[in-house]
Amino acid sequence: MQLLQNQNIFLTTGLKEGQDISFENGLIKDVKPSSANFKSESKYILPGFIDLQIYGAAGKLFSADPTIGNIRIIEEQLLQEGTTSFLICLATNTPEVFNQCISVIKAYRSEARNCLGLHLEGPFINPEKRGAHVREYIRKASLDEIKSLLDFGDGTIKMMTLAPELQDDEVIQYLLDHDVVVSLGHSSATFDQATRAYNQGIQTTTHLFNAMSALQHRAPGIPTAVFNHPTAMASIIADGLHVDFEVVNVAAKVMKERLFIITDAVTECSSGPYQHVAVDGKFVMPDGTLSGSAMTMLQSIKNCVDRCDISLADAINMATYYPAKLMKMENEIGQLSLNAQANFVVLDEELNIAQVFYKGEEIKLNKAASI
């Protein structure tokens, strides 16, 4: 049994000071008020971050070179950054690349650590809202293709972004029936079409405001549909480049626990269809089109607090508890509660990473990370 005493701990309800947290065999055994008589250090313990959309890290873009060695490198880098759970994302690509990536994740899953599986962002999106996605690979799904894809995936495909206005209802329902989280994104759906999609069971929305019909006073679009819906969630990129900080502020006020953070992070790549170039703190395609972010989850939290007027407690939930709820994994990850995985980040008084624990084991940090 390991014990950290008299700590400042972020629970889903907010900060609790003077708490003991004990853990054993990779699981949290108890969180309770401390009886220790020493003064607590100025540190904070919070759940490990959950990133449901990231393409690569440490110079490894997974789709460009899908190998077990590279997913190991990505996992380790994300653990260094406090991300203890993530979905590796694939942008619209050829079936051959998708199959290669799926094969690697299937072969690796028995030894996987913080990689939960795959998020397929495309290819079943709307070419009008393709953003940095390659147009020639975009297509409409058939039910047979979806059945084959999920059969081949064998449970590794956890999330799929698609444009519901271009897909048959039976395709979407099949995904939902087979426990794939369906996210509305890269879509020109009208307010009515998006509302219908959410009512049919689509659970969430990919990078709110980016690559979708806009919120306009005579054409309310996807953002208004998700704002107005009682259960539909949305991810957002809090880098100030993909979405202005004031807009993140408004979205958080309206959506509350239905809005969560993703990094949408990529890494430099000079091969394949997605050649990301780092320019002034962001990534663009060779033609200048904005692509993924250069963010970490910790930096995203900092931006929410410092630039978007979101409380630290709420920002932490946006990076932990809310995405866990979307994935129906909130009893396992995303909160510091009895029998949840002992995945947590220790921040110092300046909100720098001091320690990272994954399933109760402390990760040896290469260097301090900060936000």
Automatic annotation (TrEMBL):
One Pfam entry name: Amidohydro_1
Residue stretches making up the Amidohydrolase-related domain: 44-361
Molecular-function GO terms, alphabetical: N-acetylglucosamine-6-phosphate deacetylase activity
SUPFAM superfamilies: Composite domain of metallo-dependent hydrolases, Metallo-dependent hydrolases
UniProt keyword annotations, A-Z: Carbohydrate metabolism, Hydrolase, Metal-binding
Top-level lineage group: Bacteria
Assigned EC number: 3.5.1.25
Keyword Metal-binding carried by entry: yes
Family: Belongs to the metallo-dependent hydrolases superfamily. NagA family.
Protein known as: N-acetylglucosamine-6-phosphate deacetylase
Annotated source species: Pedobacter ureilyticus
Organism classification: Bacteria, Pseudomonadati, Bacteroidota, Sphingobacteriia, Sphingobacteriales
Gene it is expressed from: nagA
